Amino acid sequence: MVWDVWVRVGHWLVVALIGFQFFSGGDLDLIDWHAWTGIALLTWVAFRVLWGFVGTRHARFSDFVGSPAQIKSSFRKLTQRQHESVAGHTHAGGLGVIALLGLVALLAMTGLFATDDIIFDGPLSHWVDSDVAGTVTSVHHLLSKLLILTIVGHVVAIAWHQGVMKEPLIQGMLHGRKAGGQEAFGQAVLVRGLLVVGVCALTIVGGLLAVGRF
Amino acid sequence: MKRVIFGAVSVWALASAAVAHSGATGVVKERMDRFEASKDSAKVLRGAVKSADFAAIEAEAVALNAWASEMLEYFPEGSGGSPSEALDTVWSDWDGFSAKAGDYEMATAKLVSAAQSQDAAATASAFKAVMGSCKGCHDDYKAD
Ligand code: HEM
Questions:
Q1: CA pseudo-torsion sign A23, A29, A31, A34
Q2: A114, B13 in Cβ contact below 8 A?
Q3: Candidates A17, A34, A124: which one to mutate for ligand 1, based on the most atoms within 8 Å of Cβ?
């Protein structure tokens, strides 16, 4: 195995939730759902960052975050259709992971201060002046466009691996197995993940309910 | 690349924060304040529609309707540009903008009469129409 259940379920859950965010972001009737889904995504990012330190082998940042030189060389191999024999993410893929996590985190954080200038104020927007909230909202919009571009890049790269280089990455993210994967996951992984999810959810949701205005 | 993007975003955010509404004066400041008051009304209305508090609904709807009928006077030629978020299309397409203001005035008038008739269903749908008319104008005439 390569990908543990938290990585896999998390990945596909996030695909669905982000899809919903693009659907609901401009909709007056769905804006409360948009906010709560964004908070769920923030919780997921927090989990995934912690999991990058205390998670399973290939989920850790140390497994896939590369230096600029390594990333460059990984992209070069990708364009030359040269297979990299790593079980987890390549360094190019690792850059994608960081960019996606960073953008989703920034989107969720700016959303907390955003306003639709009609009826909705993010739960923390009372901490800032209304003009700052307006600016943060513009940043939120801009980030959503950057996220689309990054997702397109991610999907194109996967399609390239899958279609041109014949590497079954999509299946890997579904059943968790990839060539060269040596990991075996037991109950302990489930329990550890549950603990980390619980801590993140309690801190973020609890914290927001305590200090935010809903 | 990522660092460049983050750097660009934060510089841009700081720069636009520095020139944001705080610098608004005169008629631009006045219309911004009126619009902020509209947002407060919208929130009161949402609560009042839920609890079918028709007196509160009528009061807020009357206030919005009054603002709707005056709104165009608050957009004199040449009052665009930073720090205003009004797009140039307000003036280049004045007929379209006036029509949106007209839609809004009509929608708020309907909400007033729905509240007076104490018809919960009609009030709820009239409220939705008012919110839709805010958004309809913002989509075309206000910067994101
Ligand atoms: C990672 C999570 C998020 C994503 C991917 C996301 C995405 C989006 C998108 C695509 C839009 C529409 C932008 C447009 O129409 O140009 C939007 C608007 C908005 N989002 Fe989010 N969002 C997220 C989190 C949040 C959170 C947590 C909140 C508040 C608690 C929030 C509050 C808002 C508001 C108020 C708007 C409306 C702005 C407007 O109508 O002009 N968002 N978001």
A1: negative
A2: no
A3: A34
Contact (Cβ atoms closer than 8 angstroms) between residue A160 and residue A78: yes
Q: Report the candidate in A179, A195, A212, A210 with the shortest Cα–Cα distance to residue A58.
A: A179
CA–CA separation, B102 vs B23, rounded Å?
A: 29
The single-letter DSSP state of residue A84 is P
Choose among B12, B17, B131: nearest Cβ to A119.
B131
Q: What residue spans of A55-186 are helical by DSSP H?
A: 61-64, 68-79, 91-111, 130-159, 169-175
CATH code assigned at A135: 1.20.950.20
Q: Number of helices and strands (H, E) in chain B?
A: 6, 0
Nearest alpha-carbon partner for A110 in B12, B134, B25: B12
Question: Is residue A155 within 8 Å of B29, Cβ to Cβ?
Answer: no
pLDDT score recorded for residue A48: 98
Please give the residue of chain A at the shortest CA–CA distance from B133: A118
Q: What is the pLDDT of residues A192-212, one digit of tens each?
A: 999 999 999 999 999 999 999
Kindly state whether B19 is in contact with chain A, defined as any CB-CB distance less than 8 angstroms. Answer: no
A153: domain range?
5-211
> H or E stretch including A46?
helix A31-54
Q: Look-up: residue for tokens 């927001």?
A: A208
Q: Above pLDDT 90, what percent of chain B?
A: 81
B25-141 CATH: 1.20.120.10
Query: Each residue of B35-44: pLDDT tens digit?
Result: 999 999 999 9
